[in-house]
């Protein structure tokens, strides 16, 4: 991994602006900083304004584990694409598969609510997936152990995506973020794409094989084992990145 | 038949000479030869291409591009960096200067309408040499 905001990497990033490129962003930890309570996560006004400006210059997508209804409360403009529940929502998914996913999640919730967990563990119901948060648990080690044991008892077997102090449970057979990203690129009519995310739930995208064009992958925070090629140091650099992208596209428009 | 083939061969040689002259003129007057322009045009469509994928896109062997890529890099029309996930590979990008020069060249191509007409005539003559049964 190398820094995205270095002189050399920015030449490559700029070259993506010369042709139609989709700019896709994870939400929590990327556009909005990680907070103790998920309901308190919002973009700053500056970030939102910059993202909105970018969306007038190039196609923009927000790809999140949150449900679309939840995302809409936190995004006060209309980017070209809002993808929720790790790809389950926002890509024209058929109703039958969503209904099935909802039924499986209801089943899981009923079972999980009967189990005992460390104080501070929170079950977030996102209609088509679940998020089991343990950020606020006093004893995180114990909370993790309990959650993993309970997840192992769920039927049907859940697809687990580990995030920052959270286990995301998706019904079996559902799209992962990587497949969702490929679908999104096709829908946007872009040939190339840029994606930035901050945790293991984004590794599906970082490691996806995209042969029809170029995919520039960026992680928030350097991590040696990540499949992302580039990184920015911290979430606070997102505004600087957005300004740079806007600058590239404005130069192109004026040139 | 043999005479036609000889004439065809010679016509193709003449076309090659005209194209070569146009290439040199283009570089002298517009700062980009046709070959360089074609590579830059391809790079716009494949940002961060490897030499292999670039060569494949233009239909030549990667080694054929080496000298041209070096010239473009010296002129700062392209930038070459190591692939972050495999330092043995190089990623090639067109720079903003390269893009602006390429766009300016595209607009100036009309300056060579006379030369294009000559090549077009030579090509027509060459095509007329191709035997009917071919």
Q: Please tell me how large the radius of gyration of chain B is.
A: 18 Å
Helix fraction of chain B, binned, reads 55-70%
Number of helices, counting only DSSP H or I runs of 4 residues or more of chain A = 8
CATH topology of the largest domain in chain A: Rossmann fold
The portion of residues forming beta strands of chain B comes to 5-15%
**Biggest beta sheet summary of chain B:** 2 strands, antiparallel
Q: What percent of residues of chain A adopt helix (DSSP H or I)?
A: 25-40%
* Order of neighbouring strands in the sheet with most strands of chain A: 1-11-10-9-2-3-4
Compute the separation of the termini of chain A in Å. Answer: 32 Å
Outline the structure in words.
The complex is a heterodimer of chains A (255) and B (134). Chain A has helices at residues 7-16, 45-55, 68-74, 95-113, 140-152, 177-188, 203-206, 238-254; strands at residues 2-3, 21-25, 60-63, 81-83, 122-125, 130-133, 159-163, 166-170, 192-197, 215-220, 230-232. With 255 residues, chain A is α/β, with parallel strands linked by helices. Chain A folds into 2 domains: 2-90 and 177-254, Rossmann fold (3-Layer(aba) Sandwich), CATH 3.40.50.1000; 95-170. In chain A, helix 2 runs parallel beside helix 8. Chain B is mainly α. The model of chain B has no long low-confidence stretch (mean pLDDT 86). Classes of the chains: A alpha/beta (255), B mainly alpha (134). At the A-B interface, helix 1 of A face helix 2, strand 1, strand 2 and helix 5 of B.
């Amino acid at each position: 991994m190398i820094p995205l905001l270095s002189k050399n990497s920015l030449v490559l990033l700029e070259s993506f602006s010369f042709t139609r490129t989709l700019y896709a962003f994870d939400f929590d930890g990327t556009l909005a900083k990680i907070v103790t309570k998920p309901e308190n996560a919002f973009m700053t006004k500056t970030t939102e304004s910059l993202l909105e400006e970018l969306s007038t210059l190039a196609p923009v997508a927000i790809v999140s584990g949150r449900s679309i209804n939840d995302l809409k409360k936190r995004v006060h403009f209309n980017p070209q694409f809002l993808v929720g529940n790790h790809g389950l929502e926002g890509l024209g998914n058929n109703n039958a598969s969503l209904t099935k996913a909802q039924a499986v999640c209801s089943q899981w919730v009923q079972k999980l609510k009967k189990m005992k967990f460390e104080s501070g563990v929170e079950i977030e119901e996102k209609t088509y997936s679940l998020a089991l948060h343990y950020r606020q648990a006093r004893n995180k080690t114990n909370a993790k152990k309990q959650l993993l044991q309970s997840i192992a008892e769920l039927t049907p077997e859940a697809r687990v995506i580990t995030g920052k102090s959270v286990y995301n449970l998706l019904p079996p057979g559902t799209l992962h973020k990587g497949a969702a990203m490929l679908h999104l690129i096709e829908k946007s009519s872009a040939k190339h794409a840029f994606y930035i995310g901050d945790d293991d739930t984004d590794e599906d995208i970082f490691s996806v094989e995209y042969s029809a064009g170029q995919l520039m992958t960026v992680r928030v925070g350097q991590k040696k084992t990540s499949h992302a090629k580039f990184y920015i140091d911290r979430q606070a650099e997102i505004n600087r990145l957005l300004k740079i992208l806007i600058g590239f596209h404005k130069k192109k428009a004026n040139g | 038949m043999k005479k036609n083939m000889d004439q065809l061969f010679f016509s193709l040689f003449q076309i090659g000479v005209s194209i070569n002259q146009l290439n040199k003129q283009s570089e002298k007057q517009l700062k980009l030869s046709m070959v360089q322009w074609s590579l830059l045009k391809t790079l716009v469509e494949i940002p961060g291409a490897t030499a292999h994928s670039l060569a494949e896109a233009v239909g030549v062997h990667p080694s054929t591009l080496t000298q041209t890529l070096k010239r473009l890099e010296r002129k700062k029309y392209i930038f070459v960096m190591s692939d972050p996930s495999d330092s043995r590979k190089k990623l090639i990008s067109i720079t903003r200067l390269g893009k602006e020069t390429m766009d300016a060249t595209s607009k100036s191509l009309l300056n060579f309408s006379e030369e294009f007409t000559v090549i077009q005539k030579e090509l027509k003559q060459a095509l007329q040499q191709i035997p009917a049964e071919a």
